[in-house]
């Protein structure tokens, strides 16, 4: 496959990968307040699942760069736990290494694509009702190199180390909840767009979602770490097909297909106004709870990052979407999924050849019944932000047929 590099790098939902870049003058940083998002100072962060080598690589040079702005307690606790994670990883290789080497990922996975906050989690959860699928769990992605040894210990302790819900919405977090493998890539030390949440170092070459921008050695390292994690997940679920959800995979289709040429893809899109509002809130919540610094970028910087990331994300997707065979791809709307989830899921199965969906109906009914009390975040949008969405994301409105509230027309129309 031949690919062209875009020369762009997109920050995760406007997280600090690009925060503040392009501004006329630096904006004052704001203090982090993790308690505002349900996080106490003693609650574990993503980085607590890293091994010593991966943590050392992530934190190298940051002590000097961020001196005076680091959360020293978090820094010390991650360092201490990384040693234990390294020990558990070594034991896992010793005990399970031969079996892992014989494990094959077959058939190729099904991927849920879509920008952050487009409904990917809801779609992933619905598809996970099918017992033919297996998805990485919260426990597995938060401890990607140690879960084989610690899963029986940490699962019953989940209420002590997992927050009740995610920082950005009302989705519950449980040890066995289906979770995105991008988190596992991050914690396993792979190149990931989410690395920016730790120290906000834009110089870090591995802080990107579009890994086509990386040197070949880093791309190979990404593939190796991703394959190792997925193999461990498959090892615990023999005979089941992997169902993976990571928004960042949407902008690295060429690399995904390089690993899994027969993969299937379900792409979900959503009203761009809702995506914008939800991503700005997510940028604040994830940065406040996961950063290892005492301060974080101003809201306006996070907002700027959201808009840059969205455009770069979809440029990368459009660059490679033609690589997917027609019968292996389908696109749905979040609004349709909310209105009639069972009909949309059946349509997905028919479109990409996943077989009969009828057996799913009882499990879907149980999930939908349990979700009846779930409240979707509601937002009121500032008119200036609304116009910015319409101006900067005009191509998305056209591509997916969403109507603009103001009726404003861009210059290229």
TrEMBL record:
Transferase as UniProt keyword: yes
TM annotation in the entry: none
A GO molecular function held by the record: transferase activity
UniProt biased composition (Low complexity): 16-25
Alphabetical list of SUPFAM superfamilies matching this protein: P-loop containing nucleoside triphosphate hydrolases (SSF52540)
Sequence ranges of Basic residues compositional bias: 1-11
Keyword Transferase in annotation: yes
Alphabetical UniProt keywords: Transferase
Superkingdom in the source lineage: Bacteria
Pfam families: Sulfotransfer_3 (PF13469)
InterPro entries: P-loop_NTPase, Stf3_sulfotransferase
Region (Disordered): 1-38
PANTHER family, per database record: OMEGA-HYDROXY-BETA-DIHYDROMENAQUINONE-9 SULFOTRANSFERASE STF3, PAPS-DEPENDENT SULFOTRANSFERASE STF3
Name of this chain's protein: Sulfotransferase domain protein
